[in-house]
Q: What sequence folds into this?
């Protein structure tokens, strides 16, 4: 099996959320952060026929990078990596015990949302860059505006941008941790619920994220 560039990009993104990965039969990959405040789900081009667990996804990806065009031959307890179309070097990568990796145990469903907005790729990257530049750990969605700041500091620097948000009320304040926005670059349809959960659906790729809101979030108060 050869993994597509898109699948490799998804795996690299998943590795920023959790180093563990449990792959189940089929073409859907899931991951969840250690704090259980980020869940990601993606459909990939490849069809996996059996369950296997990877304890260190970054190590697995680094092992793949030893080959220009890695060919993966899956066995029950390991995957054998080799160069596609060539004989010679091989790498045997052993799977982990599934019981020691963290993975989602149930399917998440998004509750009714109160705010919806499109998030363009350039806006996402600009907000993330601004947060890094001014050292802002928090992001707030408030009255159709997205702002990064430090909620614990009243005089903290902030960066904001207006959004085309839809909501039945303008009285809301939804807080996120910037570090939880571990999204693949791209455009997203975003839904935010007063149940303190948000949903980011990529417009072009079959990948979605559920990101928990911070406890200070409020709606209609």
A:
């Amino acid at each position: 099996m050869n993994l597509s560039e898109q699948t490799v990009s998804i795996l690299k993104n998943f590795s920023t959320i959790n180093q563990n990965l449990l792959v189940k039969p089929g073409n859907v990959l899931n991951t969840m952060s250690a704090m259980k405040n980020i869940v990601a789900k993606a459909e990939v081009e490849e069809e996996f026929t059996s369950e296997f667990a990877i304890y260190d996804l970054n190590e697995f990806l680094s092992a793949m990078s030893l080959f220009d065009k890695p060919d993966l031959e899956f066995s029950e307890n390991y995957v054998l990596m080799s160069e596609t179309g060539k004989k010679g070097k091989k790498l045997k990568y052993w799977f982990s015990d599934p019981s020691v990796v963290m993975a989602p145990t149930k399917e998440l469903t998004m509750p009714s949302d109160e705010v919806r907005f499109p998030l363009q790729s350039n806006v996402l990257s600009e907000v993330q860059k601004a947060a890094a530049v001014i050292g802002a750990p928090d992001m707030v969605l408030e009255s159709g505006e997205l702002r990064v700041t430090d909620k614990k500091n009243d005089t903290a620097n902030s960066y904001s941008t207006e959004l085309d948000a839809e909501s039945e009320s303008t009285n809301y304040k939804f807080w996120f941790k910037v570090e939880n926005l571990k999204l693949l670059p791209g455009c997203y349809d975003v839904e935010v619920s007063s149940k303190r959960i948000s949903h980011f659906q990529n417009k072009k790729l079959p990948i979605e994220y559920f990101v928990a809101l911070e406890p200070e979030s409020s709606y209609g108060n």
In short: The first strand starts at residue 21 and ends at 23.
